[in-house]
Specification:
about 600 residues, alpha+beta, FAD/NAD(P)-binding domain, Flavocytochrome C3, Chain A, domain 1, nine-stranded mixed β-sheet, four-stranded antiparallel β-sheet, 14 helices
């Protein structure tokens, strides 16, 4: 997940675009191999739940970001906050609204919908050209983590390889990430930190946690090959410190190598599989994505592949029989025809920046304040595949993170929906909190706290209600009469005995809320930080071969990373995108070599 913790000055040089509406919606675009962080502040002076917010925000800070071309020199924000629960309202900080930019700027020219005719503008007959400008064994489109992995293994297998990247350098969304890579099964790092794990335990957890109807074959291969993947990364120079981060799940602020990055310790998953930390983070403080991609991009630069930057893949060449034999790349307005004798590998990212595709497939994600994406996450690679007859899968699947329970003491709070009822265990991974709040409760949620446990949340900025009784909170939030009182009565009765028979919260975070004043931290999409990216994409098999709607392979076409529907088809753990991209990028290279 994108780390939002540094405060640095914004540079308007066309490298980053921040789009936010009057409700502080962020749409973030960053070119390859760049990393940015954002923070903003305002004060909300006691607005009730049904009062308008215009004119109530008092400016006490600003919103800014910086593109860091050397991502290894980041700074973090000292978030000191005066803890005084009785003054929750006037001490909370929030984001100042800014001018709206046109929402369509990231929309691709073509939109795939079920039943559409083939997108001929993205698909060309090779018989129509006079000559090929370049000829290689494999063409890799996109230089994020999946594209880098595919390129490195393709060249290692002796294939002549070309990799094209639309930005001025590699990195993509992978370079914006926290750098957590989900691996397990008994990696050397897990063993060094004293944790036992097996591929079978990892498999049981992922099958239970990765959404409805996950791809069993892909998950089985991913778990069985996880230790080898760790060795591959270290062999290419990615450093992992042999230490364990003792905090709770998330991206560690330290340079420790191993971290909990999902809900492995939370009910029901802890009963399904033996919990083990599987988040592997490159050795650097705060954010490992830049270092990971710096190392891999340097490896790509040193390998014999042809690298073409500032190049967009604008069409595929496909024989009448269905085989993909090359592509058109456009470099500074000039088209070049590339013959790919063995295959084209699409690794261009998801579609969270394509508003039309998002509206059609995953409209709720448009309500998230932040879209975790680089420039390439506009669905262009998915549309290229569809133009060649590819099927898509799980296009409605999205990862929705809401880090409301940071600081971690807020896990002792009680999260409720618009009916005044609990709907999730509050100590779960923040990605699950966001998914449950937005996808199952329409983004209407609040975290109930009392004076004793209240802390300023790290990534949210508003208290919706404060009162001496739960009834007062209920009234301010306009919940059904008696709903919150009943919920809290049941919760407190069991919490006094250290129990949570409904959602099975870990005893460490079970505490009755009995010390007024009480507060309702705003977890609605209008005010809390929800971060989204897409999980659906091209349908592929376990060898990264792109499939048509019948399930047959499209000869010569491969895909990996967020351009595909991969390991996670619903539930998400930090590190699955990077891990999935590396693993199936490498499998794509091996599949191409076997043709």
């Amino acid at each position: 997940m994108l780390t939002v913790q540094c405060h640095l000055q914004c540079r308007a040089r066309g490298w980053a675009h921040l789009v936010d509406s009057h409700e502080c919606e962020f749409v973030v675009q960053v070119k390859a191999a760049t990393v940015f962080t954002v923070v903003g502040h305002t004060v909300d002076q006691g607005r009730k739940a049904n009062e308008p917010r215009d004119g109530l925000g008092k400016r006490i800070g600003s919103l800014w970001c910086q593109i860091k071309f050397n991502a290894l020199h980041g700074r973090t924000l000292d978030r000191s906050f005066s803890r005084s629960p009785a003054r929750m309202r006037n001490q909370l900080l929030g984001c100042k609204p800014r001018a709206r930019h046109p929402p369509s700027q990231f929309t691709s020219a073509s939109l795939h919908k079920p039943g559409d005719s083939p997108m001929t503008t993205l698909n060309r007959d090779p018989q129509t050209i006079r000559h090929w400008d370049d000829e290689v064994d494999v063409l890799v489109v996109g230089m994020g983590v999946a594209g880098a992995a595919a390129t490195l293994d393709a060249t290692a297998l002796g294939l002549s390889t070309m990799i094209v990247e639309r930005g001025g350098g590699g990195g993509g969304t992978s370079a914006m990430s926290g750098g957590v890579i989900y691996m397990g099964g008994g990696t050397p790092l897990q063993q060094a930190c004293g944790f036992e794990d097996t591929p079978d335990e990892m498999f049981k957890f992922l099958m239970a946690s990765c959404g409805e109807n996950p791809d069993e074959a892909k998950i089985r291969l991913y778990c069985d090959g996880s230790v080898d993947q760790y060795d591959w990364l270290t062999g290419h120079g990615v450093p992992f410190k042999q230490t364990y981060y003792h905090g709770v799940s998330g991206e560690p602020p330290t340079d420790d190598g191993l971290v909990w990055s999902g809900p492995e310790q939370v009910h029901p998953y802890c009963e399904i599989a033996n919990p083990a930390p599987r988040g592997h983070v490159p050795q650097i403080e705060h954010q490992g994505g830049p270092l990971l991609m710096k190392v891999l991009c340097e490896e790509v630069e040193a390998c014999p592949a042809t690298k073409v930057m500032n190049a967009r893949c604008t069409a595929l060449y496909q024989e009448p029989g269905g085989e993909v034999v090359g592509a058109v790349i456009t470099v500074f307005g000039e088209e070049r025809n590339i013959r790919a004798n063995k295959g084209v590998v699409i690794t261009t990212g998801g579609f969270v920046l394509n508003n039309e595709m998002l509206e059609h497939h995953a409209p709720l994600a448009k309500r998230c304040k932040m879209r975790v994406a680089a420039e390439g996450d506009d669905g262009s690679g998915i549309n290229l595949g569809v133009s060649a007859g590819a099927a898509t899968l799980n296009m409605s699947a999205v990862s929705i993170s809401m880090p409301i329970t940071q600081p971690w003491g807020l896990k002792r709070g009680v999260m409720i929906n618009a009916q005044g009822q609990r709907f999730v265990t509050e100590d779960t991974y923040y990605g699950r909190l966001g998914e449950h709040a937005l996808l199952h409760n329409n983004g209407r949620a609040w975290l109930i706290v009392d004076d004793e446990i209240f802390e300023k949340p790290t990534y949210m900025d508003k208290v919706s209600a404060v009162g001496e009784t739960f009834s007062e909170l209920e009234s301010e939030l306009e919940l059904p009469s008696g709903s919150l009182e009943a919920t809290m009565q049941v919760y407190n009765r069991h919490a006094e005995k250290g129990e949570d028979p409904v959602f099975h919260k870990n005893r460490e975070y079970i505490k009755p809320l009995q010390t007024p004043p009480y507060g309702a931290l705003d977890c609605t999409t209008e005010h809390a930080l929800y971060a989204a990216f897409t999980l659906g994409g091209l349908r592929t098999d376990s060898d990264a071969r792109v499939l048509d709607p019948v399930g047959d392979c499209i000869p010569g076409l491969y895909a990996a990373g967020r351009s595909t529907s991969g390991v996670s088809v619903g539930g998400y753990c930090s590190g699955l995108s990077l891990g999935d991209g590396i693993f199936f990028g490498r499998r794509a290279a091996r599949a191409v070599a076997s043709r």
